[in-house]
UniProtKB/TrEMBL annotation:
This is Cytoplasmic protein. It comes from Dyella thiooxydans. InterPro entries: AlkZ-like.
Length: 380
C-alpha cells in the first residue's frame, strides 16, 4: 500500500511472460513479497480499479478524485468505445446491469461465446465489452479479482466497501482544482520533472506549462530547481525538500538495482526516459517478430540511478526455470564484476520469487559479460 501511495497508481496489464506487470512493479520496489497482497488489498477495499494513466489500481482515498475526473477523459479510447456500446446495445447493456443488481457480482467467464476472436476489445464476447463499458462509464467497479479475472459489481456497492470511505474532498473541487491536484501528485511521484512531462502521468489535456505551475510555486506546494542539461526549470514537490537538499549537496546516492516492467511508471514515458536517463525504449510485444530489435517483452535494468541495459526473459513455471534469452548492456556501460554481482543478485531473487529458481542465461551483449554474469549467478 505504501508503494502504491508513493507512485499514486499502479498500471494493470495481463501479459505474464514474466510476472504480470503490477506484481513486477511492486517486486522492483519491495523485493520478495507475497503476490496475494495485491488481490487482498483490492478485496478489502484499500485499493480500487479505475482508468488513470491507463487501467490502474489506485488507493481507496484517491478513487473519488479519479471518479470525479472521469467525465474529463472522453478523449480516451475506453470511453469512446463505452459510449459506442451504449448507443448500439442500450437494451442489452441495461439488462446486464439489472442482472448484476439483482443477482450479484459477475465475471466475464460467467458468459459463454461461440466464436473466437483474434484479440483486443472487438474480439471480446459481447458481455465482456458491455461489462468494460459500464466500468468505464462508472456504473460498475471491480469488487475483487479471481485468478486475475475481474469480478464486477455495481459501483455503489463497491464504493461502500472502500477503506477509507469517501472523505468528500473530490466533491469540493472543480475541474481546475482536480487538475491541480493531479499535477501536484505527479510532481510528488516523479521526484523532479519539467512541466512538459507532467501531463502524461494522468493523461491530462492540455499539456502542463510553466505558467500553470506558478500558483503551486507561490503557495509553496512545489519547488523550482535548475537541472543540468535541461532547457526548462524542474519542479520538486515540497514533500521532497529534504531529498532535494541532499541532492543539491551531493549527498543523495542511488544504491538500488532492479529489473523493471515495461509498464513501470519509471519507464512508460519515452520522452522522460530520453531526457532523464538518455534511454531509448519501446515495448515490442506488439511489433511483428522479424521487426523486433530486442525481444517480445524486454525489461529495462535500473542500476544505481541509471538505466544500464535491458533483458528479454521468460519464466517457465512448469520447469522451474527462469530463462534470460538475451541481456543487452547500453553502449558505454562498464560490464564489470560489480554490475554482474548486482544483476545476479536481483535476477536470482526475481527467479526465486517466481518459483523458477534455475536461471538459464543464453547470451549477452557484449558477449564477454556473459562469463562474468554466469560466474556471479553461480555464487548466488
Amino acid at each position: 500500500m505504501d508503494a502504491v501511495l508513493r507512485m499514486r497508481l499502479l498500471q494493470i496489464d495481463t501479459i505474464h511472460v514474466v510476472a504480470r506487470s503490477p506484481y513486477l512493479v511492486l517486486f522492483s520496489r519491495l523485493g520478495d513479497y507475497p503476490p496475494e497482497w495485491l488481490e487482498q488489498a483490492l478485496a478489502d477495499g484499500r485499493l480500487a480499479e479505475c482508468w488513470a494513466h491507463e487501467a490502474c489500481f489506485v488507493t481507496a482515498a484517491d478513487f473519488p478524485l479519479h471518479d470525479a475526473w472521469r467525465h474529463r477523459r472522453g478523449h480516451h479510447w475506453s470511453y469512446r468505445h463505452a459510449e459506442r456500446m451504449q448507443r448500439e446495445y442500450p437494451a442489452e447493456m441495461r439488462a446486464l446491469l439489472e442482472r448484476i443488481g439483482q443477482t450479484g457480482p459477475v465475471r466475464s467467464a460467467d458468459f459463454t461465446r461461440e466464436d473466437r476472436g483474434a484479440g483486443g476489445w472487438w474480439s471480446w464476447k459481447p458481455e465482456k465489452r458491455w461489462l468494460e463499458a459500464w466500468f468505464a462509464l462508472g456504473e460498475l467497479m471491480v469488487l475483487r479479482r479471481e485468478r486475475f479475472q475481474r469480478v464486477y459489481d455495481l459501483a455503489g456497492r463497491v464504493r461502500e466497501r472502500l477503506d477509507p470511505p469517501d472523505s468528500g474532498v473530490a466533491s469540493g473541487l472543480d475541474e481546475a482544482g482536480l487538475r491541480r491536484h493531479f499535477i501536484a501528485d505527479t510532481v510528488r511521484a516523479l521526484g523532479v520533472v519539467p512541466a512538459r512531462w507532467i501531463a502524461d502521468y494522468y493523461r491530462l489535456r492540455p499539456q502542463v506549462t510553466d505558467q500553470e505551475m506558478r500558483p503551486l510555486l507561490v503557495d509553496g506546494e512545489v519547488l523550482q530547481v535548475d537541472v543540468a542539461g535541461w532547457d526548462a526549470p524542474g519542479y520538486v514537490h515540497a514533500d521532497h525538500a529534504g531529498a532535494l537538499a541532499k541532492a543539491l549537496g551531493g549527498r543523495l546516492r542511488a544504491t538500488h538495482t532492479a529489473v523493471l516492467s515495461p509498464f513501470d511508471p519509471l519507464v512508460w514515458d519515452r520522452q522522460r526516459l530520453q531526457g532523464m536517463f538518455g534511454f531509448d525504449y519501446a515495448l515490442e510485444c506488439y511489433v511483428p517478430a522479424p521487426k523486433r530489435q530486442y525481444g517480445y517483452f524486454v525489461l529495462p535494468i535500473l542500476h544505481r540511478g541509471a538505466l544500464v541495459g535491458r533483458l528479454d526473459a521468460k519464466a517457465h513455471r512448469s520447469k522451474g526455470e527462469f530463462e534470460i534469452k538475451a541481456l543487452y548492456l547500453e553502449p558505454g556501460v562498464d560490464g564489470d564484476t560489480r554490475l554482474a554481482d548486482a544483476l545476479a543478485d536481483v535476477l536470482q531473487r526475481l527467479a526465486d520469487w517466481h518459483g523458477t529458481p534455475t536461471v538459464r542465461l543464453t547470451r549477452t551483449r557484449p558477449a564477454a559479460f556473459a562469463r562474468l554474469l554466469r560466474g556471479a549467478l553461480a555464487n548466488h
